[in-house]
């Protein structure tokens, strides 16, 4: 297949498996607490474990992909994800649950880095914000599907059936990725030194921090939102369905944000404005009874910064630095996503409520606008030096 939008569709579906697998723990957290006698802090750690391998694998993951190639790396990653789900499905020992989660996360890291590089290969310089917005939209789509499907499976058949379902989906991803083809001239464009200049490296680091912090804030909704609603007396299924509203609306707002950024050439203003609003809504959610209204607003607005933020790294990465650069980008992202749920779980345990996790999310989103300004400053300095 050589049509770039068809390629994007394949990458979208394959990346959706990562979100589906990540959300599998949070979607059935009350069941896991009952089955294993785990507390909310333990659930937070198990959620965060999915991103732990990213801290050490994201950067070498870019080099692995550059050495082995796109298809072999993505297939190996999907095999790891499938194996991790199977381990979690068949074991009734908590430590093995953690081991399976780590194996799944390792595959998810390699797959995320490689798929992002593959998407950027096809769209660098042309509709990049729109394409990356559609690409990252696979995350809310996967989470939304999991929130609707997995609690029902877990309630009817147990947590093991949930993880078996996830393993089946990642196995399907292996079949889909065989249809991927690299863009014309991709091999020649990636034949350079692969070394980032200092300002490009700094810009990518800042971009990774922005993406990580924004996702920590957003993750608080679907990681601890169901528990927050359960504290208010909602059933597991009802809580999951309500939180899924955010993700389903994000399926619309994420590509809309990318389109608006490309159409009006104001990604910076769009991302900052939406981030400030989302921070306010996250802080409001635990303090209001208008749950559905707030969730709808988060869904409609929260997806807008995704495309502009994801396109930041592509602005400073050449084809020969794209694999390594995305490795750096995702190292920061995974560090944030590893720590975020674990810290939120600890805070929730200390406070006796999941509401504090939403407050933490509001603070992390609020930190994004200053970092966006810093990124623009770095890029401006880099451009001036290149012209002099």
From TrEMBL:
Signal peptide: none annotated. It is a multi-pass membrane protein. It is found in: Cell membrane. Its main location: membrane. It comes from the Bacteria. PROSITE patterns: MFS (PS50850). Residues 7-379 form the Major facilitator superfamily (MFS) profile domain. InterPro entries: MFS (IPR011701), MFS_dom (IPR020846), MFS_Efflux_Transporters (IPR050189), MFS_trans_sf (IPR036259). This is MFS transporter. The chain crosses the membrane at residues 36-60, 72-90, 128-153, 159-179, 199-224, 236-261, 268-285, 291-316, 328-348, 354-375. Keywords: Cell membrane, Membrane, Transmembrane, Transmembrane helix.
């Amino acid at each position: 297949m050589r049509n770039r939008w068809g390629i994007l569709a394949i990458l979208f579906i394959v990346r959706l498996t990562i979100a589906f697998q990540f959300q599998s723990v949070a979607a059935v957290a009350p069941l896991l607490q009952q089955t294993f006698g785990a507390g909310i802090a333990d659930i937070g750690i198990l959620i965060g474990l999915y991103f732990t391998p990213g801290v050490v694998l994201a950067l070498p993951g870019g080099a692995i992909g550059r050495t082995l190639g796109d298809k072999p790396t993505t297939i190996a990653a999907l095999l790891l994800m499938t194996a991790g789900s199977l381990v979690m499905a068949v074991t009734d020992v908590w430590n093995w649950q953690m081991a399976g989660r780590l194996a799944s996360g390792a595959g998810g890291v390699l797959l995320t880095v490689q798929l992002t590089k593959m998407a950027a290969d096809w769209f660098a310089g042309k509709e990049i914000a729109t394409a990356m917005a559609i690409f990252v939209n696979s995350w809310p789509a996967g989470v939304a599907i999991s929130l609707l499907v997995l609690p029902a499976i877990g309630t009817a058949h147990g947590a093991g059936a949930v993880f078996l379902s996830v393993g089946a989906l990642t196995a399907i991803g292996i079949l889909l990725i065989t249809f991927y083809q690299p863009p014309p001239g991709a091999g020649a464009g990636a034949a350079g030194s692969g070394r980032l200049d200092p300002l490009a490296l700094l810009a990518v680091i800042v971009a990774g921090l922005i993406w990580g912090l924004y996702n920590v804030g957003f993750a608080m909704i679907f990681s601890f939102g169901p528990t927050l609603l359960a504290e208010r007396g909602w059933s597991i299924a009802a809580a999951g369905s309500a939180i899924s509203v955010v993700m389903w609306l994000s399926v619309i707002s994420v590509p809309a944000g990318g389109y608006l950024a490309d159409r009006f050439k104001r990604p910076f203003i769009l991302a900052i404005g939406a981030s400030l609003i989302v921070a306010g809504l996250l802080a409001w959610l635990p303090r209001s009874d208008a749950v559905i209204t707030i969730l709808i607003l988060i869904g409609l607005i929260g997806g807008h910064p995704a495309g502009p933020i994801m396109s930041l790294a592509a602005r400073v990465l050449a084809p020969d630095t794209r694999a390594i650069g995305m490795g750096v980008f995702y190292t920061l992202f995974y560090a944030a996503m590893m720590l975020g749920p674990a810290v939120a779980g600890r805070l929730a345990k200390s406070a006796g409520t999941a509401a504090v996790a939403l407050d933490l999310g509001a603070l992390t989103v609020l930190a994004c606008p200053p970092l966006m300004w810093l990124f623009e400053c770095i890029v401006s300095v880099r451009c001036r030096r290149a012209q002099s």
